[in-house]
Amino acid sequence: MITVSRLLRQPATLVCLAFLLLLVVAAVAAPWLAPYDPSAVNVTGRLEGPSAAHWLGTDELGRDQLSRLIYGTRIALRASVQAVGLALVLGVPAGLVIGYFGGWWDRVAMRVVDAVSSIPALLLAFGVIALLGRGLTNAMLGVSVIFAIQLLRLTRGMVLAERELPYVDAARVLGLSAPRIMFGQILPNVAGPLIVQSSIYLGFAQLFEAMLSFLGLGVDVGDASWGQMLDRSRAYVGDQPWLPVFPGLAIMLTVLAFNLIGDGLRDAMSGARAPAPTWKPPPVRLVPAEPTRALLSVRSLTVAFPGAATVVEDVSFDIAEGEVFGLVGESGSGKTMTALALAGLLPPPGAVTQGSVRLAGRELLGLPDHELAALRGPEIGMIFQDPQSALSPVHTIGRQLIEPLRTHEGLSRRAALDRAAELLTLVGVPDARRRLGDHPHQFSGGMAQRVVIARALAAGPRLLIADEPTTALDVTVQCQVLDLLLDLRERFGMTILLITHDLGVVADVCDRVAVMRAGRIVEQAPVGGLFTTPEHPYTAALLAASGGAHA
Ligand SMILES: Nc1ncnc2c1ncn2[C@@H]1O[C@H](COP(=O)(O)OP(=O)(O)OP(=O)(O)O)[C@@H](O)[C@H]1O
């Protein structure tokens, strides 16, 4: 539904859809719309220009051009739908099977695909015509084969990625048969790009039909086809210059319409050209905050989503320079929303409705976006739970590390690479120089998290917000990453806001801690005090539930 509404917001796509609808109406209602019989010859009225009797003129046999153009839509649409329909029927199931089963099936099929793909579509159409004879159906068969091969390749590529996803494993565990998984589970997930590609192929098919008819290999001589009209106009264009104009325009506009619809569908599905949301955050009610020596001072921070309950309410805490401050609480208690609010990264329509967030004495709430963006990196760094999803899979680690170094420190590429290698060594990645050329998937979870930490350090932030940085890692690696954070605090005097639901982690690394529940801080204290004498019953219950992890 989101895709349809985005599509309806694209004027160019709407115009193209209306144009195609017009073609379909013209094809279906041709006998009623066409003013003349498209094959009625009138030798006394040959090669006439546009007139009241013949709006688009007549051809070399005196046939009405408008009527032939209207009847031509039937062939244009039939050729396109036939070629793409057959390609979908052949290519998509083959791609699903080959991608899903993989192995030698895949290897053999892909070699065949490579070989057939190297043949130009037009050449293959000539081959099919030579074997099976002239005619629109035979001509479009060769084109269908090429489209089918391309759709097979596209489907197979997407299935290779999809089959590794948890929902496919879940379907296997449920005992669904392979065809049901392929057609019932995977196909709906890969349908979007296939629809987009097909609409683009509809345009290509139309072009091929016109080319083959132009070469005299498509429709029968008497039939009205735009390509054939263009072909016949060549010999008489000297006598009647209007002849090629209308069939040429019809071909051009139809191909353009199919392609623009394909583009529009792609944008609607990816949201790329969707208009920016009109939503504007409400103004923040700044709470006056007294001067403090803390590096970060948060007062009465309140975050709300329109129509939903307030997710963070009246949260206040201070973090001193060099301190590790823990924010702990059960899932959904508002820890992440607090952190995102501090960095100005709340997902719309969430917004800070009131409060004060001062970093080194400077109020951050209400700062314009570009000023906040300039603070992220050198002032506030963030690391998240899943290191792999925080790194771009297609870029090397080196490239991802030098970007912040070049942006914030203005280093040359060579100097940035040297510094990136130093940072990787600092966070404990062995053989750092060589590993700069590796991609994220070549790193284990713990090593990838070290890379993410190194990237956050690259800009030298004063405050590092670490949101569940060890939750996705196994216990041994968790300890190593926490030790690394502590080591960095020691060396650089870095201030850390550590978000976690694990009281064991809090006990190990934090100086002070705040306990959150349902969007509010219910208690905050130095770590030792909180564990020995919790004041709030919720803290006591959390400690009891954690089974003495802190002991
Ligand atoms: N887009 C949203 N719209 C409305 N409410 C949201 C949205 N995103 C999050 N919330 C709500 O905000 C509350 C706080 O979420 P938050 O992610 O901060 O919790 P958390 O304590 O970090 O939990 P977890 O440890 O599971 O990440 C939750 O009740 C959540 O349902």
From TrEMBL:
Q: Which GO terms describe its biological process?
A: transmembrane transport
Q: GO CC terms for this protein?
A: plasma membrane
Q: Name one GO molecular function term.
A: ATP hydrolysis activity
* Pfam families xref list: ABC_tran (PF00005), BPD_transp_1 (PF00528), OppC_N (PF12911)
Transmembrane regions listed in the UniProt entry? 83-105, 112-133
Q: Which domain of life is it from?
A: Bacteria
Q: Which UniProt keywords apply?
A: ATP-binding, Cell membrane, Membrane, Nucleotide-binding, Transmembrane, Transmembrane helix, Transport
Q: Where in the cell is it found?
A: Cell membrane; Membrane
Q: What range(s) does the ABC transporter domain occupy?
A: 296-543
Where would I find the ABC transmembrane type-1 domain in this sequence? 73-262
Q: How does it sit in the membrane?
A: Multi-pass membrane protein; Peripheral membrane protein
Q: From which residue to which does the signal peptide run?
A: none
Can you say what this protein is called?
Peptide/nickel transport system permease protein
Protein source organism: Nonomuraea endophytica
Q: Could you read off the lineage of the organism from its UniProt record?
A: Bacteria, Bacillati, Actinomycetota, Actinomycetes, Streptosporangiales
